[in-house]
Amino acid sequence: MNLKQYLIPQTLKRFHSQYNNDIELVAFSGSTRLDMGGLTQSGEIIEKIWKKALDDLLPQDFSPHSILLLGFGAGSAAHLVSRRWPKARITGVELDPVVIDIARKHFKISSIPHLTLHNQDALDFVNQQDSQLQFDLTLVDCYLGDQFPLQLESLKFIKKLTQISPFVIINRLFWGKYQPLTLDFHHRLKPHFATSTTRTTSNYLISIQKQRGVGD
Hints:
This is Methyltransferase domain-containing protein. InterPro entries: Methyltransf_25, SAM-dependent_MTases_sf. This protein is α/β, with parallel strands linked by helices. Helices cover 31% and strands 28% of the residues. The model has no long low-confidence stretch (mean pLDDT 93).
């Protein structure tokens, strides 16, 4: 990596897929990141967002045996949870095969122990699971560029998530035009689920748990 790449972001390679037309591998400040739809999708920024969520929204003594990552991307969340809970079994679900290929070639996901990766739509994957607890923790980061799929906002989908996982955390964008969309989504959840939140400068993270006797 040359000096210019430390000072100014440099696009190393561009990719296209049927799901994302603006995929870039970018070198900057001594590291490589994945950008999609003009947004950073991997690296230190993403890890900091998820670290805050795990620190703020989970019990202090929480130690999951199985973790589901919906919207695997380049694997930043997987690297983070693997370092925190090295014995945990990690299941990643990623819609875009091009992104999976990039993650394997450029982001060292093969070094993550106990990882199983599925090239599948998150909605289809979740709907195929039996309605019983299978994952101790689920992290949802299913953006296509800057768009959160509407079908993943449905109460039916969220209910199924809480049936297969007692702790669900959803990452949402939270600046400019995204703020009212994210707040509306959270507002629609409140009558049906127990929720708590934390946020960073740009993101709003919602922890969702099934309320006892509600939504069954």
